[in-house]
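Cross-check.
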Amino acid sequence: MPSVFIKTYGCQMNERDSEAVSAQLVARGYTLAASEAMADVVLLNTCSVRDLAEQKAIGKMQSVIGQARRARPGQIHGFLGCMAQSRGDELLGQLPGLDLVVGTQKLHRTGEYLDDLLAHRRERIVETAEEAGSQSAVREHLVLAGEPTATSGQVSAFVSIMQGCNQHCTFCIVPATRGGERSRSIPDIVDECRRLAERGVREVTLLGQIVTSFGRRDYPVRDGKSAFVQLLDAVHDVDGLRRIRFTSPHPKGYGDDLIEAFARLPKLVESAHLPLQSGSDRMLRLMHRGYTRERYLEIVRKLRAIQPAMGVSTDVIVGFPGETEADFAETLSLCDAVEFDMAYVFKYSQRRDTPAAAMPDQVPAEVIEERHRRLLDRINEQGMRRFDALVGRTVEILVEGPSRRNAARLEGRTRCNKIVVFAGSPRHVGQVMDVRIERTGTFTLYGDPAIVNLDGPEPGMAAGSDRVEPIGLATQ
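Predicted model, tokenized:
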């Protein structure tokens, strides 16, 4: 049987897409290779949010094609995803030896295209056209049991609930690569979550470009609840699930019904990713974000009022065209006011065919670098202080499996989305347990399990409570 290796760049949506393509190919008789050197087919699932991501994928493919010429002639090479969607035929001209380019709405047809290429029925396929219903075409998450690289005992899973974006931020290429908003049905999503729970998944993360825009045209507000909150209610009723997360939302989607859901639904964890992009109202208008600095702070205040242990993470762009030192100071001061649990700090990157790419007053690279460093330093200082404050406290974790850095230990995740490493046994995987934090590392917590509370809240403690204050960290 042909073997395939898939490497993923970019966001959690891409990770979910790669999982789905893997499952699809295994169902068609393909096996999953451990590396590109061992594969008959190499697929790179690409990102277009920043130029660096595109250049990494192109450089990687050039290397793979070059190695295949020497060691594995006949190997099939393909790009999937956002860069494939935006560049299309251009990639074939740029990379001799590339065989396949599959856009975001054709991923569910990857198996068909590979079958044709391997059987020599077609040569050099490019498919980037829109396809109605593509948001619901692929539902499988887990590759078949028994595959050598299959994920056995998977505890957490991504569930894609929609595709596309209608926001059109001036810096963003996603509406061009993912298309307009298209939502799956609530029964379809709930059925997928139920099947995952039956296979041992205990936590689902609902995914969308702007997940809080789910079903706006399909499900009217009911009893004061938006379509997205109606979906949360339905997923919450799935037996076997212990936790629900979602990403990535938009501040415009944080109505009172969603904020109240964090208090009303025990399975909805106290973790809110709330993209900021800038703390300056002038920059937010230029970015076409649709909210103000004060509105953003109001949302955070409401979230932490209703759930004091709420963890808040964010995305920030430094160096957007026209950003002055005063604008950047507004971002710094807002970060001081919020004290984020985690911040993804991005250097502005010009993306072709976006309004921001043609804006005047592009910020020099050296200024962007300096502001990027300053903001990271500020958030990291806040985060490490708050990490240290957790020592001696007890947190609830869902045990996900072996630690990625030390397979002899286990790791789990708190409800507020912090990684905790501890000594345990395989029987703990998939269970909810209390861990007492003993020390901190570089954005990692180390703990000692309180086994008496295995798989449930301790007496007198409300289910869903982390019993700790939110903490801060920053990553690049």
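Confidence is low (pLDDT under 50) at residues 143-152, 451-476. The chain is about 30% helix and 20% strand. Passed to J.P. for a second look.
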